[in-house]
Amino acid sequence: MSTHFTHEFDTPAYKGKVSFPTGLFIDGKFVDGSDKTTIDVINPTNGKVITKIAEATAKDVDIAVEAAQRAFDTTWGLNASGATRSRLMTKLWEFMERDQKILAALEALDNGKTFQWALDVDIAFSTDTIRYYSGWADKIHGQVMETDDKKLTYSRHEPIGVVGQIIPWNFPLLMWTWKIGPALATGNTVVLKPSEFTPLTAIYMCSLIQEAGFPPGVVNIVTGYGHTVGNAISSHMKIEKVAFTGSTLVGRKIMENAAKSNLKNVTLELGGKSPNIIFNDADLEQAVNWSLHGIFWNHGQACCAGSRIFVQSGIYDKFLAKFTEKTKGLKVGDPFATDSYQGPQVSQQQYDRIMSYIDSGKEEGATVHVGGERVGNEGYFIQPTIFTNTEPHMKIVQEEIFGPVGVVIKFEDEDDVVHQANDTMYGLASAVFSQDINKALTVAHRLRAGTAWVNCANTLNASVPFGGYKQSGIGRELGEYALHNYTSVKAVHVNLGIKM
Ligand code: NDP
């Protein structure tokens, strides 16, 4: 089955032929899965099979871990200097930049996001993430501690070893780079499982890993299911760290597996139900535009989506009128059409899940103010949807929908909105809109969330930490903070003459 995927794109947004090897990527080679079984990759615009990819099993995870361990002990880890790691990572992001349109086209085909967004945001940010961490690779160092004149005491930031990484389907390449960037920069070797819904860019990247000249076994990609491959990674005795992005439900399983196996170090980036708070004194036009981006970016399939929009009573009616008008103007359609804003949701499963939340909102008595219906009769397209007249206990107010569905809620004063905003098990992100900077910052600081945007939403940068409070996760990705997830600190005490 280790074969080639070939696809001819002849679309308004992109024309070109793509052909690359597929298979599991283990020890620098494309190989079949041990059971020779395959997984269908589905096109979300029509539900048809794009291609079949190799299915990994727990046995393949073992083989990948062995390869990663060999590489760690010989060609990588403490055997590759920071400069060597940096040079290879630099080649990788340069190849990503060269192939940006291919990567964007694969992302649009596989995930359903529009080609232009994939190109301008996903691929640009992914390339930037590898570029950012290539710069760190030769700047990983500890500290010298003053303890005693007759002692030299210092710390080393050493790589952990073989790390396991499990990523979701909403930002397939971006999550690949958020995980792999800091892991490689600090000298770890990797066994990564992409989501089986969106494996194509992860597989394409393996060719670039080969072309850049990374030693075999440094990066291993095992495409397979969560209950088999994800489970094997999180409970593997030789994987000393696991990083996961996905649902809070599965995040719990990852932690449980880590605890029951070798107590591996765990970082989790989980769900969210982020508040987006608009005060009477906000710039209305800007608040509307950012709120649209906050909830509808990536079809609402973003852990940091601003899905609870709180608007102060003085501008509630004006905001809702403008927000409604602009929501109705968002074009849902083919990801490769140049005028589409929103493509399909990623899968039948997610489509069903989102529609069941819309049904629950109606059943619980909320008002569908805009949208709420399927678009077309094939694929997984859903209208951008706004609910009003909600109550705090409703499922659509409390739970992560992970689709183009937001609730707009009226509030009176600052204390009230801070209380409502924090009244959820999540704490990933938040946004505040006000032209009074004192008020905006006071509220930003009172919100229990790992990110607070002021007069903007969903803006991220490779150098800025991202992660959650409460049940939105453990640890931080991106920036210098992510490097700590991938290093073990060793203290070295050198006796320069203390006698016993
Ligand atoms: P999951 O959390 O189930 O999947 C995320 C990843 O974890 C996938 O690669 C999945 O593989 C894997 N996985 C599943 N079960 C296990 C397991 N037992 N051990 C290890 N890995 C496992 O998310 P879903 O795709 O099912 O989406 C459901 C909901 O999760 C969404 O509606 C959204 O609310 C949330 N979500 C949040 C994301 C975020 O960015 N924080 C991203 C994606 C989803 P497989 O696909 O084979 O099950």
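^ NDP complex. The first helix runs from residue 58 to 74. The pocket of NDP is lined by residues 166, 168, 170, 193, 195-196, 225-227, 230-231, 234, 245-247, 250, 253-254, 269-271, 303, 353, 400, 402 (CB under 6 Å).
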